[in-house]
Design goal:
The complex is a heterodimer of chains A (252) and B (238).
Chain A lengths: L1 E10 L2 E11 L4 E5 L6 H9 L6 E6 L2 E2 L5 H8 L2 E4 L11 H12 L4 H14 L16 H13 L5 E5 L7 H18 L2 E6 L2 H7 L2 E6 L2 E6 L10 H7 L3 H10 L1
Parallel strand pairs in A: 3-8, 3-9, 6-7, 7-8
Antiparallel strand pairs in A: 1-2, 1-4, 4-5, 9-10
Helix pairs in contact in A: 3-4, 3-5, 4-5, 5-6, 6-7
Chain B lengths: L1 H8 L6 H16 L3 H22 L9 H40 L2 H7 L4 H38 L5 H9 L4 H27 L5 H30 L2
Helix pairs in contact in B: 1-6, 2-6, 3-4, 3-6, 4-6, 4-7, 4-8, 4-9, 6-7, 6-8, 8-9
The chains are: A alpha/beta (252), B mainly alpha (238).
């Protein structure tokens, strides 16, 4: 479980996060949603420790991140997997080498066991063996995302962060990626935090949703409650598309 | 910021095995791939220097071997270390800055950090050590090739006789000049790789900014090479 308590963050006097508190539960797909510029990426990067917060606490199962020294943060990060918006695969390595990389850095196991684990992860995300030797630039965006997920889970992380996992993907592939993240979260009992503004993802897998508006937490709930909330900013966000306006009409 | 980065770079690698996997790749990329440009420039500059020196020393009072001697000392003292390093600052510096800069803007460095890897050490240390290891060979190779360039002039033209040229390049040879040149080049190699890595590592924005980082790396690396050239020369020859 990750707990965020009274977090403030500003850049050059611009207050981006204002007293944000939230609980991200283990074994659930927790989502941070909000419009572009609302502060959700800053919140996620603060939770990971890529941004140093001004005030507050970020507790990983009771371990407060801002109190940690760099060495302790590095050790904690070995329990963290992350799926980046652009996949962030290493260009100079093949698909298999990308997944083996965290294992080679931190796993005490033999090379053969590492390879076995990498194969397991890649097959778990439904990648065919013939693509293992290819470079990231030689595979599609959806496949790159799957490789990135395989790399993120290679070290069996306790915490998984996904930054806009569906950006640049077609709706069908987006659905596959969403379901994959959801499945991994449940099977491995991971605390997953997804940063998204894709309503399809929210409805599909949002078990614990935090809505950020102008740097503040404006709402917290799940995908069943989200249609019935009386919050103008959230309603504007949820019913921005025609599809969800129609859904609202049918519900009414 | 540069000092802080170097503090993160110049520490023991997280895993030596990974370091030794990167190291030969960097030796090849930064050192061996620089050989063609070193060969071409050294031979041509050696030849041109011989012709120009002869042109400027056609005084009957000067011994006939002067041209070879001046060519050799210019190559040993300045060209093969400083000028060659300035050229390599362009090639190697832009290569490093654009590679690391691209990794920064495509979040590959963030990915390393999230994994708990000391990204600065993992990416930069093999480059610095590889280039520092390769540079003495490149410099000595450049000296030899520069002399070969001059030899070609003596062989294929009437500018200078081969005997005078060969006498000149052997006359009053000071081995310390080679040592001085190698010491300088080691410092320059560290400057070129660390400055380029610094600009690449802190690149922000998009492709345009990687280009700017690359330009800044070459320009500032070159200025620092010149500054340290003056400093080391005054310490070792002054």
């Amino acid at each position: 479980m990750i707990e965020v308590k009274n977090v403030d963050k500003s850049f050059d006097g611009n207050h981006v996060l204002k007293n944000v508190s939230a609980v991200f539960e283990t074994g659930k797909t927790n989502m941070i949603i909000g419009q572009s510029g609302s502060g959700k990426t800053v919140l996620m990067k603060s939770i990971i420790g890529l941004h140093r917060i001004d005030n507050g606490r970020i507790e990983y199962d009771g371990r407060n991140l801002p109190d940690m020294r760099m060495k302790e943060i590095r050790i904690l990060r070995r329990e963290v997997g992350m799926l980046f918006q652009g996949s962030a695969l290493f260009d100079s390595m093949s698909v298999l080498e990308n997944v083996m990389y965290p294992l080679e850095m931190f796993s005490p196991t033999s090379k053969e066991e590492m390879k076995e684990r990498a194969y397991f992860c890649l097959k778990h995300v439904n990648l065919e063996e013939k693509s293992f030797a290819l470079a990231p630039s030689e595979i599609s965006g959806g496949m790159q995302k799957r490789v990135a997920i395989a790399r993120a889970i290679a070290l069996q992380p306790k915490y998984l962060f996904c930054d806009e996992p569906n950006s640049g993907l077609d709706p069908k592939t987006s659905l596959v990626i969403d379901q994959l993240i959801h499945e991994i979260t449940h099977i491995f009992g991971i605390t997953t935090i997804i940063n998204s503004h894709d309503m399809n993802s929210v409805m599909e897998i949002g078990e614990n949703i935090i809505f950020i508006e102008k740097g503040e937490k404006a709402w917290q709930g799940n995908n069943k409650d989200i249609f019935h909330v009386h919050n103008k900013a959230l309603n504007d966000f949820v019913f921005a598309s025609e599809l969800y306006k129609q859904v609202k009409k049918v519900n009414q | 910021m540069y000092v802080l980065l170097m503090k993160r770079v110049l520490v023991q690698p997280d895993k030596w095995r990974m370091f030794f996997r990167q190291f030969p790749k960097e030796l090849e990329k930064l050192g061996l791939q620089s050989l063609p440009i070193v060969i071409i420039i050294s031979v041509f500059i050696g030849a041109i220097m011989t012709i120009q020196t002869k042109l400027n020393s056609s005084n009957p009072l000067l011994p006939t071997y002067t041209t070879g001697l001046v060519t050799r000392d210019t190559l040993l003292l300045e060209f093969s270390s400083t000028i060659m390093c300035l050229i390599l600052a362009g090639k190697v510096g832009s290569n490093i800055a654009s590679e690391i800069g691209t990794m920064r803007i495509t979040e590959q460095i963030d990915a390393l950090e999230i994994m708990g890897v000391n990204s600065a050490n993992y990416l930069i240390l093999p480059k610095i050590i590889a280039f520092v290891v390769m540079i003495p060979f490149l410099v000595i190779f450049s000296m030899a090739l520069g002399l070969v360039g001059g030899y070609f002039v003596s062989l294929f033209t009437d500018v200078i006789s081969t005997a005078d040229y060969l006498t000149g390049i052997q006359y009053a040879f000071v081995p310390y000049y080679v040592f001085y040149s190698v010491v300088k080049s080691l410092i320059f190699a560290f400057i070129i790789t660390s400055v380029a890595s610094f600009y690449g590592y802190y690149a922000q924005g998009g492709a345009l900014d990687v280009g700017k980082a690359s330009t800044n790396a070459v320009v500032n690396g070159s200025i620092l090479v010149l500054f340290f050239n003056l400093l080391v020369t005054s310490l070792m020859l002054g």
